[in-house]
């Protein structure tokens, strides 16, 4: 067991007879070794958590960019379609992660945009 603690934590844990346990120094030494091991575990965990946080931040950044791109694309498609085409789309679902709306839009063939008709105003 001592060799395992030495190899994993780089600390040697004395066994009975290595230190004078009658004076209480052995208990203090063991407490110090345990504290060192706990600090080492804590530092490794903190490092792992920081790495995971960085990965998640990068994923969030990519998802925000993709969301923004899709919102712009959606606005463009809406602006190029007429009210009849928009009324044919299914109602928005409660689940924002649903792809059925994207599939419904992609399944319709693109139709040419028709500019709004301007009323003829005659100056009298």
In short:
Helices cover 63% and strands 0% of the residues. The chain is built from four helices and no strands. Residues 81-100 have a biased composition (Polar residues).
Could you characterize what this model shows?
The relative contact order is 0.05. The chain has helices spanning 2-9, 25-80, 83-88, 100-107. The chain has four helices and no strands. Residues 100-107 and 112-116 have low confidence and may be disordered. The protein is mostly helical and 124 residues long. InterPro entries: TSC22/Bun, TSC22/BUN_CS, TSC22_domain_protein_2. Residues 81-124 are annotated as: Disordered.
For the structure shown, list the relevant keywords.
124 residues; mainly alpha; rod-shaped
Per DSSP, the total helix count is 4
Mean pLDDT: 75
Tell me how many strands there are.
Answer: 0
How far is it from the N-terminal to the C-terminal residue, by CA?
104 Å
Radius of gyration (Å): 34 Å
Percentage of β-strand residues: under 5%
Q: Profile the largest sheet.
A: none
Give the CA-based shape. rod-shaped
The arrangement of helices and strands along the chain is HHHH
Q: What share of residues is helical?
A: 55-70%
Low-confidence stretches are: 100-107, 112-116
Structural class comes to: mainly alpha
């Amino acid at each position: 067991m001592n060799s395992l603690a030495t190899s994993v934590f780089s600390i040697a844990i004395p066994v009975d007879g290595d230190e004078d346990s009658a004076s209480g120094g052995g208990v203090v030494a063991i407490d110090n070794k345990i504290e060192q091991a706990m600090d080492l575990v804590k530092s490794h965990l903190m490092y792992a958590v920081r790495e995971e946080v960085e990965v998640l931040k990068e994923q969030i950044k990519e998802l925000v960019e993709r969301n923004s791109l899709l919102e712009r694309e959606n606005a463009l498609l809406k602006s190029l379609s007429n009210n009849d085409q928009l009324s044919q789309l299914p109602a928005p679902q409660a689940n924002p992660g649903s792809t059925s709306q994207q599939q419904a839009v992609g399944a319709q063939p693109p139709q040419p945009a028709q500019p709004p008709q301007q009323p003829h105003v005659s100056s009298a």
